[in-house]
Amino acid sequence: MGFGVLIVRLVPNGIEIGQAARIGPCDQSRKLVARRGRPQLQRTKWGGVVDNGLTGSGFFRVAERNGVFWLVDPDGGRFLSKGVNNIRFDQDHVGRTDRVPYAKACTAKYGSPQIWRTATSNRLASWKFNTVGCWSDELVASAGSQLLASTPTAELGASFRLHRRDQIFPDVYDPEFSAHIRVSAHQRCRHRRNDPGLLGTFIDNELYWSPDWRGTDELLTLFLNLPSHRPGRIAAISALQAHYRDFAQFNTVWRTQARSWEEFGRIEHVVAPFVRLRPGVLNDAIETKANLADPSREAFSADCDAFVAVVADKYFELCVSAIKAADPNHLVLGSRFGYQPLSGVIAAAGRHLDVVSFNCYDFDPGPVIDAYAAAGRPCLISEFSFRGDDAGLPNSSGAGPRVPTQTERARAFQGYVVAALSKPNVIGYHWFEHADQPAEGRFDGENSNFGTVTIEDRVYDELTEMMTRVNAAAESIHAAAVSTAI
Predict the structure, then answer these.
(1) Inter-residue contact 56 to 74 (CB < 8 Å)
(2) Exposure string (b/e) for 134-154, b if CB count within 10 Å is 16 or more?
(3) Taking CA atoms, which of 157, 411, 439, 480 is between 20 and 30 Å from 265?
(4) Phi/psi at 303 (5° precision)
(5) Distance CA 35, CA 14 (A)
(6) pTM of the entire structure?
C-alpha cells in the first residue's frame, strides 16, 4: 500500500494541482489544472458542480461519491461550502460602547445597509465563496446576483445554560432542558423549514467539553459541582456509585475528605485529584503514558471519559431531535467544537449529526481532521484564520497563528485549504471573518487582522486573490482526495 502527496502550484493563470509520484505499487500520477482559457466546470445557480450522477432534492444534503464526501445543493450540484463568518454591516462594537467603526465607514461608502449587502454579496461571489457563515446578516445571501447558502446557529445548549445561570455546560439531565430546546428550535428553525437557501443549522458554538483554553475542569467535575438539587449533579454521583463497588474504592481514586456517599453528596466543591491536558495527538500520548504509570490516574480518566461520552450522546440526541422536529428538511451541522474533544464525544456526534463541525486554528488541519474522521460523518471546518502583523492592528488578542505579511497570510490560506480538501471527509471551510476587528478591541478584547477587508472596507488584495484561485479549484482538489490517501 503506497501513499501520495498532493502538490498545488501557483501558475500565471490559476492553480495547478498535481500529485507527486507515489511510493509503493500505485505510482500513476495525476494532474488537475484549473486555468483561465480552459473549459470551466458547469455549475448550478448555487455554485455547485453539475454532476449527472446526482439529483437535487430541493434542499442541501450530503452524499458520498467514490469514497469522498460532498454536499449536494438543491439542484443536484456537487457542492463544497466555502464560507465567511460574521458578514455584518454592524460588525464589532468597540468594547462595550456604541461605536461601530466598520458601520461608520460603510455608511459613508455605500449610504445604506441594503446597498452594502448587494455590494458585499457580489464581492464574496467574485471571490468564489458560496456560503454566508455563522453570525452573519443572512440577507446578504440573496442580495447579489449569485445565490449564497446560509448557516445560522440555533444556540440551543447555550441558551439553556444562560437561562440557568449556574452552569458552564447545559445540564442535559434537567427535565426542562428538553422542553427548552424544543421551544427554542421551534422559534429559530421552523420558519425556514422550506427555504432552499438554508444549508443547515449549527446547534451551538464552542461548548466546554473538556480541558481547553478556558480551564482544566473535567465535564464530570463541573456536573459534580452543580448545586445539590440540580439533576446533573445527582446523575454524576449516581454514575460514580454505579461504577464503584463501595465508597472506599471510589475514594482511593478521587481522594476526597468524605467518608461515605452521603458525605460526598454534601461537599460543596469537589476537587479533581488529577489535571489532564486537553485532547489531541501529542497530549493523548502524554496522558496514556501518565495513566500507565498510575492506576488511580487511569481510573480517574476512565470515569471522566465515560461520563462525558454519555452526556454527549444525550446532548446530541436531544438537540438533533429538537431541530429535526421543527425543520425536517435541512442538515444539522453540529456544535462547532472549539477544540478536539475526547473520542467518546466524537463518537456520539457521529451517531446523531448529519455533519460534524469544528473550529481549527492550526497551520495544518490534517491531524485534527483525521481525529474527527472517526465519527464516520462528513466534516465542516466552521472557523479558521490567519493574522498578518503588517496590517497595523495589535493582534494581541484572538485565536490562531500570526504571520509577518499579507503575502504569508495568503500562502497560509492556500496551504490550509488544500490540506483540508485532500481529506475525503471534509465538505467545506468557513473563514473567520469578513472585516478586521477594531484596534481598541471588540466586546471580548479581540483586536486582530482576521478580515478579508479592513475596518474601512478596503480589500486585502493578496489574500482575496488567493482565496479566489483556491476556491475556484476546490472541487478539483477534493475530487482527488481518495487517490492521495491510497
Answers:
(1) yes
(2) bbbbbbbbebbebbbbbbbbb
(3) 157
(4) -60, -50
(5) 5
(6) 0.92
